[in-house]
Design goal:
alpha/beta; single chain; about 130 residues
Length: about 130
Amino acid sequence: MDRIDLTPAAAEIIDKLRAEHGPLMFHQSGGCCDGSSPMCYAVGEFIIGSSDVLLGQIYGCDFWMSSDQFEYWQHTHLTIDVTRGRGASFSLEIPLGVRFLIRSRLFDDEEYAQLPPVHVGPLEEV
């Protein structure tokens, strides 16, 4: 059971961004306005904080969330999608005239019981 997934439309945008920027990662801060949208960055362009939570990977990209936001969404399956329109953020997809967004649903009890634990804080280089 995964905590996060993506739509084919989001995968298509990730392919375009990866071709231009190389390896990518996502972060969901939980702030107001565009801070509530998932943000896409080139790997190394966003510093992971000591309390950020790694939800997993989508399409080869680590997906991180602030711990405060995770407290609210830990019982929720997230699907990354895209929609037309420019957000007012630093996320890499903005110049393409689209923005990432999250669609969500609650896990049922059986799904929630099968979830693996999350990792908190930056990953250590091996």
